[in-house]
């Protein structure tokens, strides 16, 4: 998947690169996501943000116009994202809810979400969509396949 990650701190760069293992085309930006930096999302499928990035209805509409289909927040909470507008725009949203809150753990969770989406699977407990999804079990390890 082609993704751009905003608000990346120096210590996160290597961790994301290692977790990614050159699977996804990642662009890492140290600037926050806003109207002035939104152009970096052009041509990407996924935007990766931090809790410091505010994704209002206006920003989400601009992201959708730029081709963004999915958003991963490197945070546990999603209060900085207008989830209802994202749902209206059919933008999927995931967070990083797992117990390992270390920078390495968050980087691995972020890439795990990309991997699952890339293979057509649901991100499970990381899903923050406000719509009901139809999923069917894919295997016994809890991975599910999105069916529409």
Automatic annotation (TrEMBL):
The organism's place on the tree of life at top rank: Bacteria
Keyword NAD: yes
Taxonomic lineage: Bacteria, Pseudomonadati, Bacteroidota, Sphingobacteriia, Sphingobacteriales
NAD keyword on record: yes
Name of the featured protein: D-isomer specific 2-hydroxyacid dehydrogenase catalytic domain-containing protein
PANTHER family, per the entry: 2-HYDROXYACID DEHYDROGENASE HOMOLOG 1-RELATED
Domain D-isomer specific 2-hydroxyacid dehydrogenase catalytic residues, every copy: 19-109
Organism expressing this protein natively: Sphingobacterium deserti
Keywords, ordered alphabetically: NAD
GO MF entries: D-lactate dehydrogenase (NAD+) activity; NAD binding
């Amino acid at each position: 998947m082609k993704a751009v990650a905003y608000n990346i701190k120096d210590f996160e760069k290597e961790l994301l690169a290692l977790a990614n293992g050159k699977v996804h085309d990642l662009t890492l930006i140290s600037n926050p996501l806003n109207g002035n930096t939104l152009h970096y999302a052009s041509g990407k499928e996924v935007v990766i943000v931090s809790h410091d990035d505010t994704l209002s209805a206006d920003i989400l509409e601009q992201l959708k116009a730029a081709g963004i289909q999915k958003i991963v927040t490197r945070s546990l909470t999603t209060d900085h994202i207008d989830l209802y507008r994202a749902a209206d725009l059919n933008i999927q949203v995931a967070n990083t809810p797992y117990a390992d809150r270390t920078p390495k753990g968050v980087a691995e969770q972020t890439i795990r979400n990309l991997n699952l989406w890339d293979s057509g699977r649901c991100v499970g407990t990381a899903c923050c969509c406000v719509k009901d999804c139809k999923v069917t079990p894919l295997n016994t390890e809890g991975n599910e396949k999105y069916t529409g």
